[in-house]
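Show me any protein, fold above all:
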Amino acid sequence: MYQANMHEAKSKLSQLVEMVLAGEEVIINRAGKPVAKLIAYQEEQEDRALGALKGKLWISPDFDELPPDLEAAFYGENV
């Protein structure tokens, strides 16, 4: 975590933003006391509704069944 005073934050904003983009947090102080935290912006993700694709997908009844030769290959058996 990097700390900068108000004057430094004003004169070196671009450099401080580059530090933030590299993953570091920057605390901005006024009169020696922290007043702001500069962190990377993250888009807010919308909550996904459960069951949104219900009735729109079809899965074969034998989806979980492997052909015997493929199953044997997974277990290192020769067919």
Notes: DSSP finds three helices and three strands in the chain. The longest helix spans residues 13-21.
